Amino acid sequence: MNKFAVIKAREFRRKMRVKRKLQANQERPRLCFTKTNKHLIVQVVDDLKSHTLVFASTMEKDFPLKGKKNIEAAKELGKVLAAKALQKGIKRVVFDRNGNIYHGKVKAFADAAREAGLEF
Predict the structure, then answer these.
(1) DSSP letters of the chain?
(2) Which fold has domain 3-115?
C-alpha cells in the first residue's frame, strides 16, 4: 500500500468508529459535518426515513462569507444551521463529526451551533 492508501484507510476506520458510537433516533436526528478542500457542508439527517431535514453550506448564495473555509466561516455556518433547524422545530441532535478531529473548524462550528440554541 502506498502512503495515500494508508492515510485513507486510517481516515475510514476513524469515521466508522465514530458512526458506530452514535445513537440517533426519532427525537434526535444526526447532525453531519463534512469538510472538503474548498467548502464546509453540514446537514441534519433523519436516518430512519433516510432524508435530509436541514442543510447549510458555505456554497449557498446567501451565505455571508462566500468562498471562505476558515474558522470564522465555520462559526457563521453554525449560526446559520442552528437558525434553520430551530425554524423546523429541531432542537436536539446527535453530532457526527464524520471522522474529523474535534478541534479548529469542527470545534468552532459546534460551539457556534450550541450558542445559537442547538443541544448536543
Answers:
(1) --HHHHHHHHHHHHHHHHHHH----SSS-EEEEEE-SS-EEEEEEETTTTEEEEEEETTSTT-TTTT--SHHHHHHHHHHHHHHHHHTT--B-EEE-TT--SSTHHHHHHHHHHHTT-B-
(2) Nucleotidyltransferase; domain 5 (3.30.420)
